[in-house]
Amino acid sequence: MAVDVAGEVCRHTGRQMCPRCSWTRPREAALLVVRGRTARTAFPVALVVGTVLSLVNQGTTIVADTGTTSTWVRVAVNYAVPFIVASVGYLAGRRTSADATPWPRYLARYHDARPGITELLLEQATDRRAEQPYEWLLEPLPGRHAVILDLACGSAPTRELLPDARWLGVDFSAGELALAMAAGRGPVVRGRVERLPIGENAVGAVCAAMCLQVLTPLDAVLAEVKRVLRPGGTLVALVPSRMWFGRGLLGWWRVMRALGIRSQPWPNPDARDALPKILRAHGFIVDTSERRVFRREIGDPHAAALLLDGLYLPDIAPDRVEAARAALASWALPGRWLPFPLRRVVAHLPVAG
Ligand SMILES: C[S@@+](CC[C@H](N)C(=O)[O-])C[C@H]1O[C@@H](n2cnc3c(N)ncnc32)[C@H](O)[C@@H]1O
């Protein structure tokens, strides 16, 4: 089992860093202090240093019982300062850079090992009107005569929903594309979306299903989308949305707790609910940005296992995932469901002027 930077085993993941004891932004560091994660290290230091300082500086006053409020404030400071210093030392060794995970390599291996996983998860998710996520995504696509590029198409679940379209899928996972071809979905091209094997202004629409939150570097990917999309062309994107309070939140909390993390990590976390802002910064005109909650039944252990399989968990040790699988298997029951909040963003390029 791997050890963490301080030489102790990370009790959440069994690895060097985990989202519950590491931080990237100052806000996360502050939360670690508030949640008491630094206390185990900082408390003994504060106890020893604070007691020594208080005895040396305020001992006589306290023993003579002549202490005032200011004496006790100083005693408190004697304990607080070493606590803060020791916490800062603890946190300094647990800072991770935002892009510490080698995402492209992880994603390539993940999708080759689990072809069709995103489709498997979403095809059984429905909203209140019994509509499925991919149907919702494709509704705004313009006339069927334009060439539609499915960016990071995976197993190409959109292909059958656009039977008359001039459709082309691009993805870098051989496993995903083999599944797409075996299902008669094509044409597909193996390639990286940050270097699309397509000419300028060649497509009339781009469909980005569940991918902009994982494609890196996102700036390069969006520049490529702009290059291949003709002026006035449409982009429809489907991305995960944040969980808000409501029914089902407890279910996701249970899943995350079983895995020992606070939330699922993404390569581009901002390319979810802040996607419209990102697209505008890249010169797109955003037409709509809508959130819809789909739900999927977690009715048996198989569905619970599929759910875990469908999460990107680059920093979680396999034995932790196994433990979570066992925990969630007994929780899964007919009629039990989890919400999948998704955001659909429709945007277009300005017509060349
Ligand atoms: C969450 S899946 C979505 C797949 C598909 N659009 C769907 O909805 O089922 C993300 C896809 O992005 C692909 N991918 C990730 N990075 C890529 C890259 N740099 N170039 C091409 N494909 C990439 C993966 O292989 C995977 O198929």
Short synopsis of the structure:
With 353 residues, this protein is of the alpha/beta class. The protein is 40% helix and 16% strand. The protein has 2 domains: 26-92, no CATH class; 103-348, Vaccinia Virus protein VP39 (Rossmann fold, 3-Layer(aba) Sandwich), CATH 3.40.50.150.
Structure in words:
This protein is α/β, with parallel strands linked by helices. A 7-stranded mixed β-sheet has the order 3-2-1-4-5-7-6, with helices on both faces. 40% of the residues lie in helices and 16% in strands. The chain folds into 2 domains: 67 residues, no CATH class; 246 residues, Rossmann fold, CATH 3.40.50.150. Helix 9 runs antiparallel to helix 12 and helix 11 runs antiparallel to helix 12. The N terminus is likely disordered. It has 12 helices and 7 strands. The structure holds S-adenosylmethionine (SAM). The site of S-adenosylmethionine (SAM) has 22 residues, from helix 4 and helix 5.
Assembly context of the chains: single chain
What is the overall silhouette? elongated
Q: What value does the average pLDDT take?
A: 88
By DSSP (H or I, 4+ residues per run), the number of helices equals 12
**What is the percentage of strand-forming residues?**
15-25%
What summary fits the major beta sheet? 7 strands, mixed
**How many structurally independent domains?**
2
